[in-house]
Amino acid sequence: MCIRDSPIAPGLRPLFDSATSGAEQIAGWAAGARVVKAFNTTGAENMAAPGYAGGAATMLLCGDDELAKAAVWQLAEEVGFEPVDAGPLSAARHLENLALLWIHLAQVNGLGRGIAFRLMRR
Q1: For the chain, how big is the Rg over CA atoms in Å?
Q2: pLDDT at 6
Q3: Residue 122: how many CB atoms within 10 A of its CB?
């Protein structure tokens, strides 16, 4: 099995079925590794400048190791995102689908790469 740089299949489809994710595959291949899924639901432009008029773009992250998630949380904050814990590594499949939606909106629907997701709370 080869490690891909993205869990996206041709035609903007998920590479894996809904029972797993690219991140879970990596965790299986790298036994004992502390895998955290993050920084995949947006583009490079938002990595460079995650601030918007309404606030920082949300950076969802998930993983099974709390110390590793805390490190990724801190990194997300330091670069200007609002981190949100999406739960265990099994939630990575949802983040991977959200990445597909971002790509679809940006490229297929023509919104451009200057878009980001933001979790709103009441």
Answers
A1: 14
A2: 59
A3: 2
Q: Are 14 and 97 in contact (CB under 8 A)?
A: yes
At 41, the amino acid letter reads T
Contacts of 45 (CB under 8 A, 6+ apart): 113, 114
Structural tokens at position 69: 């998630």
Per DSSP, the three-state class of 111 is coil
Structure tokens belonging to residue 26: 């990596």
Average pLDDT, the chain: 88
Q: Is the pLDDT of residue 85 over 90?
A: yes
What is the β-pairing status of strands 13-14 and 55-56? unpaired
